[in-house]
Amino acid sequence: MSLPLHAQPGPVPEAVVLEGLPPVREASAAEVAARISGGPRLVVLDDDPTGTQTVADVPVLTSWTVEDLRWALRQDSTAFFVLTNTRSLSPEDAAARNREVVRALHTAATAEGTGYVLASRGDSTLRGHFPLETDVLAEELTELGAGAPDGVVLVPAYIEAGRLTVGSRHWMRTADGLLPVGESEFARDATFGYRSSSLPEWVEEKTAGRVRADEVLRITLDDLRGGGPAHVARLLSALHGGRTAVVDAVCDDDLRVLALALAEAEENGARLLYRVGPSFVRARAGQAGRAPLTPAELRRLRGDAPHGLIAVGSHVSLTTRQLDRLRERGGIAEYELDVALLLDEERRDAHIAEIAAAAAGALDATDAVIRTSRTLVTGADADDSLAISRRVSAALVEAVRRVNATRRPAFVVAKGGITSSDTATHGLRIGRAWARGTLLPGIVSLWEPVDGPAAGIPYVVFAGNVGDADALADALDLLRSL
Fold first, then answer.
1. N or C: which end of the chain has fewer CB within 10 A?
2. Average predicted confidence (pLDDT) for the chain
3. What are the distances in angstroms from CA 56 to CA 288, 297, 402, 409?
4. Cβ neighbours for 295, distance < 8 A, ≥ 6 positions apart
């Protein structure tokens, strides 16, 4: 007798996972935009910068002073991002940063007379500080007088990257079919690892049993497609006491039905927090998917040098394959930051300076890649591993800062979540920017910095765990056409 679908190890053909689902209920982005018009602003606290990869023409902050937040609230956009970068922080520092951001946001929104709803944007492969971040946000909203949230809505789907939720089970697309995320390399993350692919069971696992799987509200494709927005709004309105709901999604229409339901439930008094992947943000903001940016749209943006800089910090196997393919196509000079030297206090600074000078000198003749050595160095425990990651990332960021101070690149590509965040905030000192769109469909975001030493230089946020083997080389080909 064969095992049930959810018990079969390894990838499952996508057609098998999607077999027998109810037909898609169509919902347009225009319908969502009309529904949320005049409503509260969606504020996305992004635990790394890759959450912008599904949207276009949305403000991004890497600083959260009251003035920065008031600037974002005044922009003509239904949503904006605040880059908290908490995935790179310890639990204590992540909690403190969330509190700081929400307090400043509440002050800014009060001054602007604007309502807001919070989305805590996490990884579509379920890595990150959950439930810590939503717990802290709920506590702060309560203390600020905004009201204790009735529920936390968990929507990790990332449609473009093939992260789908069916029957409350989360899957990731691979070359061999859909793989339960609990069997993926991301589930073995040194800091944020987990076992469960079933979202209710994952919630129980991550809350250490505080929330039992059978207490989690499951909003399925039958609810979204068969019941529709009004039915789902009734389910959401029944949430009380901070109860968690998990939501299926296979396509943008599923997420737009959810967005309509959320707007109705909140209009009727429900107070909800969101913990989401990238695709939800686009749906909830009332945006349709857009084609990647064209060379004509990009030509007004470039730095001074003839060539660009690529900073690679991600260690996942996909990034390594993408680097290999980029080497095959050629046109790059490559410089390695040796992790062993970076962890040596006496040799660290000289090593960074040497690599940065060489990369800056190469920009007149070729694109330059600065990467960390590909051997992943881990610590004795999760906190130690995170500390090593931060130290290595800081070195890569310092190298980028030195390059930009010497020779402004035509563009900067940052590969990896922590790398992208630290490069934006510290390497290029971007405080305010606009996420203008993508270089590749829904997976590689391009920012236009509007302040700091990188103003006017296209900044490309490229997650470590997205795209195929050719994606990095394809993105570089487009940037080279500027």
1. N
2. 92
3. 9, 13, 30, 23
4. 478, 481, 482
